Amino acid sequence: MAVSDDPDLSGIRKDQRYSAMLSQIERQHLMYKSGLVSGSRAELPEGSFRSMVVYGLGGSAMAGRMLESLAEILSDFPVHVSDGSRLPKWVGRDDLLVIVSYSGETAECMLALEESTSRSLKAVVVASGGKLLSRSAELGVPSVTVERGLTPRMAVPEMFGVLAALYHRVSGNAAISPQSISEAADRLPTYFSTISPESKIEDNTALKCAGLASRSFLVSIGWAHTAVAGLRLRNQLAENAKRVSLSLRVPEDLHNAIEGLHTIPGQSAVLLRSRLETKDVSAQMEALKGMVGPGLEVSFSGGAVFELLSAVMWADMVSLYASYLLNVDPVELKVIPKIRQSVTSTIRGAR
Known about the structure:
globular; about 350 residues; Rossmann fold; five-stranded parallel beta sheet
């Protein structure tokens, strides 16, 4: 399919390669709410906590990073996302450890569960099934089961809902609560209508960004929670559209990475703006307009929670549109499964 400035989107709901993922994006508001209910009802280890630590990789880590970004600007109760090969040494019995793996088969999460038990940490497991759930039951570790049968990276909204509900229960923070998340989720269908395949092409920023990603090297630049959406965009473009891109975070990457950006040929920048930007951040965003490759500016508003949820939905739609424009299967993965199989075999052989 040739990439044009006036693409025909009539087939995106008919072609099963794209329609299933489109449906999952369209119902993200329901997925957030489902996760909130599950997290609110889940069993928790006894005691009070000084922080919440989320261990996960891929989409599971993304759910944690979404929560972490909100906590940074809305709460004094910290969230730390761990995506290394082992749990941080500093995690103790005063921290709530949440081990997240949508499939329940992530080898590193299995190791994290065993390590948490050996260190007598207080943990909760979140998964749709797999060995992680069965092993957590054997060890007496509380667990939360999420909806099965989804494309794993598209389960992020439900996993975030679970994490947000757990966070509210241990932190007592009203700004990140089932109510605040649910109210933001209720607004997503209206937002989706502005970036859906049926919306006006000239007003559809997700489609415009997908066109840039299909024709050039995309560089997303964001701040705080919009930087997390930029990271989501980078990851989704890689997995869904099989396109490499770059995500930069203000202000950190304007102290280093920005200096070499001009060496990337054919780049296009997308600035992910927030109504909550501080004056210094806004000044840096404005300064970037004359320094980066021509591209797009996308603004999000409506409070931190809704800005994050809508920006993640937007990023998901960009990646789906890009896969459609490039005529690639957004679900099929070739490289990642081979690596995961190798890691799993190595870990099993070491036991």
